Amino acid sequence: MAMQFATNATRMELLRIKKRLVLAHRGHKLLKDKQDALMRHFLELVDTIRELRKEVEEKMQRCFQYFLMSRISTSRPYIEEALMVSNKKLDIEFESKQVLNLQVPVIVSRVEGDIRSYGFAHTTGNLDLGLQLFEETFPKLLELAQAEKGLYLIGDDIEKTRRRVNALEYILIPGLEETRRYIQIKLNEVERGNLTRLMKVKELIRED
Amino acid sequence: MFSTKIAAVGDFDSVFMFQSMGVQVYAVEESTKGREHFSQILKQGFEIVFLTERLGEKWSDIIQEVSTKRKPTVVLIPDQKGSTGFALDRIRNVVKKAVGADILKEKRET
What we know:
The complex is a heterodimer of chains A (208) and B (110).
Chain A: H1 11-73, H2 76-84, E1 89-99, E2 102-112, H3 125-207
Antiparallel strand pairs in A: 1-2
Helix pairs in contact in A: 1-3
Chain B: E1 6-10, H1 12-15, E2 24-27, H2 32-42, E3 48-52, H3 53-58, H4 60-66, E4 73-77, H5 86-99, H6 103-109
């Protein structure tokens, strides 16, 4: 049984509690709806992420194979040098999308230029192939970043919302109900007491 | 040439190609020093930080701290030795916490 709140058993208090009860029910319903909506977004994101991650991991694995081959014949300084002169321009911007009350990031990226602007002398064809593949994979990585951040933000909020829903459903609402019942019983008792007292007084007066 | 918004952290062989995309690359080792370096990188205002799973597993506490902040977004990537599955584990944990059930596991089996 839920704990009742410490109150005075008065009619005023009863009215107040009835009002709070209505409010609590309404809040509960709203939060519950919010939780459902968040959950829908969340599950969509989970699906997207699972697919993206699988794809990215597979592609990166292939990239690494090329890079491994290129590393056998090219030493680190040469690779660093080759990549240094890349004239690739990457510009990302963060916009945000509103998911209910949450701001979820959306990444807008613009890529310009060619990665393979280094000389041919010190690097191998494998590096070229690997980089090309990586270039294709990179937008997926950005998508993944966006989706994962969204997932964490929404997940966090679902948890908070659920805690609130539960607090309302299992603590506040039953507590208020219990208190209302208590006050009503108490008031009824007082009413009955008054009635008998009146009857008694009436009897006393009549006997006189 | 470098974007100041994205960084990649990991051993050289696993992250050097990010440089070609104009991403700031930090080659760090798995050590106390590397750990400090990484938490410093996170404070530098990057939007996205790519981190190899192997390092992410070691430094998961640092990642956890920023995971619900707006930025940076830490994305775990497989390194040259392949995926450890840690990134997926992390996602599964979030799902478990949010949904209250391990729904990913079921889906995997079917």
